[in-house]
Amino acid sequence: MGLYLVDTVVFVAFIASVIAIGMWMSREEKDSESYFLAGRGLSWWLIGFSLIAANISTEQFVGMSGDAAREVGLAIAGYEWLAAVTLVFVAFFFLPKFLRAGIYTIPEFLEHRYNQYARLVMSLFTMMMLVVVNISAVIYSGAKLVDVLVEHPLVNLQTASIAIGSLAAVYVMFGGLKACAWADLLQGSALIIGGGMILFFALGALDAADPAAIAPNAEIAAEIQDASPLQKFLTVHDEKLCTIRPANDSKVPWTALIIGLWIPNFFYWGLNQYIMQRTLGSRSLAEGQKGIVFAAAMKLLIPFIVVFPGMMALTLFREDMQKEAREKTNITSLVLFEHLSGESTGLLEGLNEHVTKAIEEAKAELTKSEAEAKDDAKQVVFNMESEFVELYPEVAARIVAYNKKVAADNNLTYSVEAAGPQGVLYFFDLMGFGPDEPEPKADAGEPSDQDVNGAIVAAASGDDRFDVAKQMIGVDEDAAFPLLIKKLVPPGGLYGFMIAAIMGAVLSSLASMLNAASTIFSMDLYKRYFVPATSEAGLVFVGRTCVIVFAILGIVVAPHLSHPMFGGIFTFIQEFQGFISPGILAVFLFGLFVRKASTLAGIIGLVANPIIYGGLKWLDKIPGLGSMEWARQLTNFAFLDRMAVTFFAILAIMSIATIVAPRKELYEFKANTTMNLDSSKGAKVFGTLIILATAALYWFFRGSAVIPF
């Protein structure tokens, strides 16, 4: 579906209005406090909408709905519902201390508690994470939406990334935080309305669909024959409507609900610069608390307009999602396989001009790479998702045969029985293994070619001679939400409004992240270490220059995130934030409650995070450890459980450091503000109700077992 004239007018008018209002409201920003913190004058309702709009973007609409379409289902809503509880705690335990200290940035608080080097380390970590992970991920997810919706030879992930990143950079360069906040008010409202529209249209499409086409079996098809749209949704997706996942789930195990999932939530909502910058700009503590609690209430609604439609997308448009995988995501891997094997898969033939151009570009890039390749170039072993094997069995057989030859030619030792949890996760259902069972099941029978291929990939993943990053997927789940818009939203104004709401969210999130990253560089690095005597106008100029640089870096990284190895964009963001989030949270909490904690303990805690987390993630890649069972077991932790282990390990290290070298006197937090720090009683009441509502949602969607092991 293309944009009609009226849709184009609505889209352009909405985006232009948002930008114009933001620019007008921030037209008098001349000093650093005005540009970076909106003059500390934001009201509660503006803070609440701004928090939601800064948070909810295409990383949720594309990434989270994609995970919901996968086997994770409603469990992915834990990021939203537990965030509501987290926000309540942030409002009454974190925010008072931040506002009392009168800080511009979260790293600045660590200087108050520890020393300037703790601030420096956190500033560097946070800035790198914002640019490499958050900014690039939002640019990619927005570009993914454009790539699916706009079928034109000139539109692809690269060109869409350039357009989105550039527009966001220009927007925030001339606006600052107040522009972001006022734009967020409009975009946050449009986003919730647009998400509600998608839910409504998806339920309508589910109701109109043939029961036999959407039901997993004939029995359920008969059951939903005369059911209401809501009942059809609940029945068809019954297995996915469970917030409690088994302990061996790779993304949201029930164990993560105890510790692991709280770590990214508290880091994101309490210690994340681009989120907390909104609350640091509040006119009083009470206004900030009311704004945060208002945002918490809205977080309870998000899964209904993001997660539920994602589930329905796979049910309604599985063939379209398969087409997206075949014609876009798999192109590079298929071109490489045909080149290396000398065989045609047939999957690159008879495609439209847009796809043919992508194939030619992939071939040209391959030729260029080979010309620059060294003699020690790695051997490629191809991995396949189980649904790819089911869809294209003949192609899968050729890939398996090729991988066997590569293994034989390079004397790669592999064993189906030994692969166990080390085997690539996509092959678990084919190999007859459970995710934490190293022995094959009794009914597994003789290993098939696919079993052997899983073992080859498992063995090659621990061998430096091989590249196992080339993967073939059957379904592109990240296309779920874009397809819902493309297939269900009617033209004539609504389509343009929907795209404007989503793209507005992209610009809002990007603007927030770019502003936060530039604030950290300007206030924590440039003013502190490079030019301490810089003027207020000079700081604003440096901040605006940083916006351009960070946007360019994000644009360069973004297209590479389409690779299946990242497991979906939402998972990519959450997993890679684990390199800093457990340590920052541990250092903050330890410094808050252990007043004898020394400056050394704070620095060690921050630096230890990427070492411990990275070790747990890649331990089996260290030569000599890949074949050891204990190393394989550690690397197969769900990343949320890995965060929990890292968090407690850092607390233990900081405890030892404090015992060995404690502060000579108890630390006292000093006030550095004239702001009204009276707490909001009304916010406390509503915060309590939000916690109870979250517990009720988890109880209602608990599934058939409370703790399924």
Overall description:
This protein has 709 residues and is an all-alpha fold. It has 3 domains: 5-25 and 36-314 and 481-565 and 685-700, Sodium/glucose cotransporter, CATH 1.20.1730; 378-472, no CATH class; 578-663, no CATH class. Helix content is 68%, strand content 1%. It has 33 helices and 4 strands. It has a two-stranded parallel sheet. A two-stranded parallel ribbon has the order 2-4. Helix 3 packs antiparallel against helix 15. It is globular, with a radius of gyration of 26 Å. The model is unreliable at 31-39, 420-444 and 705-709 (pLDDT under 50).
Shape: globular
Q: What is the third-level CATH name, the topology of the largest domain?
A: Sodium/glucose cotransporter
Describe the strand arrangement of the main beta sheet, using strand numbers: 1-3
* Secondary-structure arrangement, i.e. CATH architecture of the largest domain: Up-down Bundle
Helix content: 55-70%
Reading off the top of the CATH hierarchy, the class of the largest domain is best stated as Mainly Alpha
The whole-number mean of residue pLDDT values reads 81
CATH-wise, what's the superfamily of the largest domain? Sodium/glucose cotransporter
Structural class: mainly alpha
Biggest β-sheet, characterized? 2 strands, parallel
| Radius of gyration, whole Å | 26 Å
How many helices in DSSP terms? 33
